[in-house]
Amino acid sequence: MRYLNWALRIVLFVVLLGFAVKNDQPVTVRYFFGIEWQSSLVIVLLAFFVAGAAIGVIAMFANVLQQRREIVHLKRDIRVRSKLADIGEKQQIPIQPS
Length: 98
Fold this sequence. Notes:
Elements: H1 2-22, E1 26-30, E2 36-40, H2 41-90
Antiparallel strand pairs: 1-2
């Protein structure tokens, strides 16, 4: 399995390297107010890919924090209920037959 993983990584690297080599033409990215950025197409694509991934991680971050808080709350609730169940078992009064 380890060799398959490394083979897949090497193939992906070669494909991405070929993509980078074939797309080295200069491009101009124009912003508002006449601002321009000239760079290689690969650099521009990489920059926008990284920016999109960062925005996705930031958007997901609030949800992850909320889930972690809920997990902590539920674990605390389980501990409290198990302690109460232990106390309830200790305080049971045996029923005397009449």
